[in-house]
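CATEGORY: protein folding

GOAL: derive structure tokens
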Amino acid sequence: MRFLWLLMYSLLCAVLLACFSNMHDVTKYIFSLGALYVGMRFFRRFEQIGFRIWFIVISVLLYFIFSLIYALYTQLGITAP
């Protein structure tokens, strides 16, 4: 069950960071604050060093994956039907 919480928090943090990095107006800072809040909630809930390290590693990896997907999506010009 703890592993699922780890994945959920990491996924949410990665999505918020990807939104932060791909927006170009002032509202992007809301996503930054959201990612910071999610990280603080995770660190308050799980005090083990191993879980904290895995949270950061998984969040960064998912952030890179989501950013790559977004870059490919915008460069290929894929439109919704």
Notes: Residues 49-76 form the longest helix (28 residues). The chain has three helices and no strands.
